[in-house]
Amino acid sequence: MTKIKGNKLTLRRSDGTEVEGHLEDCVLLPKDARQLEGKEPVEFEDEADPSRDPVVRSPGQMMEESRTDKETEIGPVPLHKKQFDGKLAKLGAGQFVAYCNSHPKLRKCRVGKVLTVSRQENLIIVHRYRPLADGRLRVRWLPAFTVGGNEVLGE
To answer: Which residue, among 119, 101, 121, 102, has the nearest Cα to 110 in the 3D structure?
Structure first.
């Protein structure tokens, strides 16, 4: 590195030529780092090859694949698999969840942080979070507390 100006820098190669670059695109390596790949350039497969599966799948393709995967399973699913592979098994304390309101005609959901999970009672205790907009596009979610019957936001 020969010169830094803002987030741009000038690098000197081993042959003496100088190259400009951005600081966020650079990585500082330790002195004992070794190059393990060699000098040959890395060649990638041609992405335009029609026989190759697409790298990015659409949501429709993902849904079709999941349907075909389920159809390949033959026979009834054992009871224990039905019991323990639900959404409750994937939740843990400290995770955030979006859950529906108790009123079926209101088309809103709420966000909360899971405090405890009771698998025996099929019960999840959630600390409710409320949005706080900053007047732009960013929304912060803060925990809500009840003080004197009114709901207030806290840090």
So the answer is: 101
